Amino acid sequence: MKRIVLAVIAVLFFLSSAAQNVEPNWESIKARPYPQWFSDSKLGIFIHWGLYSVPAYCGKEQYGEWYLKGMMEKTPFRMEFHNRVFGENFDYRDFDKLFKAELFDAEEWADIFKRSGAKYVLLVSKHHDGYCLWDSEYAPNWNSVTGGPKRNIVEELTSAVRNKEMKMGYYYSLPEWNNPLHVWTKDPHDSIGTYVEKHMIPQFKELVSRYKPSIIFADGEWFNSAEQWHAAELIAWYYNTVGGEAIVNDRWGSGADYGFRTPEYSAGITQADRPWAECRGLGRSFGLNRNEPLENYISSENLIKHFVKLVAAGGGLTLNVGPSADGKIPLIQQERLLDLGNWLETNGEAIYATKPFPKFYEMKNVSVSRVDENIDFNWVRNSPDPEISYDNFTAVWTGYIVPDYSEEYTFEVIVDDAAKITIDGEVIIDFDKNITNTSESNAQEGQKFNFSTGMKNLKAGKVYKIVVEYQENNLEAKINLFWSSPSLTKDIIPSNKLFLKQDKSENGLNAVYASEKATISYTVKNDNLYAICLDFPEDKLVLSIDKPEKGMKVIFLDNNSEMKWKYKKGKLVIDTSGIKFSDIVSIGAWTFKLENYFGNE
Q1: Is the confidence at residue 444, as pLDDT, over 90?
Q2: CA distance 420 to 433
Q3: Are 56 and 289 contacting, i.e. CB atoms less than 8 angstroms apart?
Q4: pTM of the entire structure?
Q5: What is the mean pLDDT of the chain?
């Protein structure tokens, strides 16, 4: 027995040593396999909470955690609010006195996250403002222990999360907006060396050495190379310190090309070369934004549908909550998390530890018609309507335009992808440059938009037919249509010059948005194929898939009942007419398990 015990210890020591033998170069780092637990987890919780949670204010499509950046740039929208509410002499550092976290309960947070079905938690340990949620030696008077809360948020939450048997990780901003060693976005990008060596590297190692996180989510890498961030050295050191379960994301500077992918507020991706998880908030912002309207918040049903589509494509979701300054997670955010958790209690076997089916989805074309006042939109990385995809959609506006002056007008469009403007059958602008933003990690800065102009002579009072066509590909979604003339200052074409009908009876433009929409998502686990319906099949469910192996059963997970089915002309037809309303417990998506679809191995 003693020899067996010693042998087991030797094996464990060997495995541990092997897992920690990573050299500080990309060849060695990339040879290390990504830990399987992350790909199996599918769902994690992101937490943006800090001094920015005190004002909790920004534009409706902006990020609340960027409050300091708005102050530094003295943007009128931000400063009007700040001066009115906090006073002209109130510095951003003064928020530390108001950030009390008096209702913060780490155990309560961990319980909510566990009930959501999440398998890991990512806390923003330090955002771009440099404020730390632990007592960092490198931010001695700029952290939650010496500051307002007088509490070590990192330590408390890490303990609570691990007690709930979830993995704990940290978001860590590589640069800082307000560090005297390097004022990020203000100082020359290549002057960052002293900051990295004297502040960022030792602080990063302090955080990792003390708390051994399973995940590091780096951010703010945009303007520098992986070499300038010492990325290979830091990642190798992190892996050797924490061991085989450690994983990092893909935001380590140009030249890295490594880490789990992190598309931000997107329709997901289909790249399968390494793990990925979309990160997004329940609203438009990560940090709490009290200025957000209710419609900005994704509904529970649409959250479930979106999550299912990400998993079907081989990815996952890191879903953000933005607690208020007192430490409470807003009730609407709690509701969404718990609704998702309830869905996972019934359907989790079709999600956790699954792999993608070669055919991710069954698709259909959808369109939404409405009246828009004018064309002045910046959806950022969102959709113009819940029915429309976040990416790869089109919009067509039709109506009539009536000028006030008889002269030559200049039309200008600001657009992210492609636009075409036609007036009375004449193409004025036809722009399609197909530019794609290079970073998926930065939705608030560095957006690349295109400008295109065209000219046409118009007569005062004459009614002209106008057609505007727009194509959105991926990431940012934006289109603004301006006009100007010798007698008219450049401005968005106003609604009182746009009409739905030729008789000028109603203002605005007829808008039609269109995209493809997934109706069924597929996942695979062992010999089972799961068909997750995003629209409930009232009478029958038709799947365009290969013929199943003999002995397959179809189980409706909501009530574990076996369904009748037949296979005919390349389609599997499942009879769902017998499902009663009382049998349905899920919202948003409904799972049919094709048990033993692939047959026994």
Answers
A1: no
A2: 12
A3: yes
A4: 0.89
A5: 93
